[in-house]
Amino acid sequence: MATSPIAPPKALTIAGSDSGGGAGIQADLKTFAALNVYGSSVITAITAQNTIGVRAVHEIPPEIVAAQLDAVMEDIGADAAKTGMLASAEIIRAVVDGVRRHNIERLVVDPVMVAKSGDRLLREDAVAAIRDLLLPVAYVVTPNIPEAEVLTGREIRSLADMEEAARAIAALGARYVVVKGGHRSGDAIDIVYDGTTFQRIRSPRVETRNTHGTGCTFSAAIAARLAA
Asked: At what angle do helices 145-152 and 159-170 cross, to 10 degrees?
């Protein structure tokens, strides 16, 4: 007697499309697949970009973002989700409303603000919306040092500064905070804060210029493991 196949874990990415395939939705779906998780997507923006830079950005209307999210969650569902590029406060509101509407508890927030090429990927009003609306529904948030500086309004130079930033971001509502240390010199040291204790995760630095999409891949991997 044939048995029914076991459904794989499911993860949802809510982010921008990268025409070069190295970051955004494309990187997230590749990461989900590599970790044996079924991936679905909500596209928040279409970008014309490659590994060198972003040439154009077209934001998706918030109502279409919401409709994509509803379509996925009402049929396929998700065991975990992640956000990437959310270019405007209106899009962030649509996403947060959808997260609450569908009770998505395991949400990984990658607070994408600037592409590795230096091109800005969100409007000024979106920063406040990330702080006030998105972080309170986040299970994990994964800022790099420049993003953590924007979210906290403080300069980060030392590991102690990273820990204080993690504490400040957790106070905004995120359950777990991972402040990534890739922008510092020496070994790469990430700070993980669970609201009570700090953990320092150290790795040898990989000397490479191929850093496009690393933040997307990292946050997508966390979402995939949470889904599994």
From this structure: 50
The question of whether 44 is a catalytic residue gets the answer no
Q: Which of 82, 83, 98, 216 is catalytic?
A: 216
Instruction: Let me know if 216 is a catalytic residue.
Output: yes
Catalytic residue among 47, 180, 181, 217: 180
Collapse the DSSP code of 57 into the 3-class scheme (helix H, G, I; strand E, B; otherwise coil) and give the result: strand
User: Is 211 designated active site?
Assistant: yes
What's the CA gap between 64 and 55, in Å, rounded? 23
Q: Is 180 in the active site?
A: yes
- H/E element, 29: helix 24-34
Tell me the per-residue pLDDT of 156-202, one tens digit each, with 9 for 90 and over: 999 999 999 999 999 999 999 999 987 777 788 999 999 999 999 99
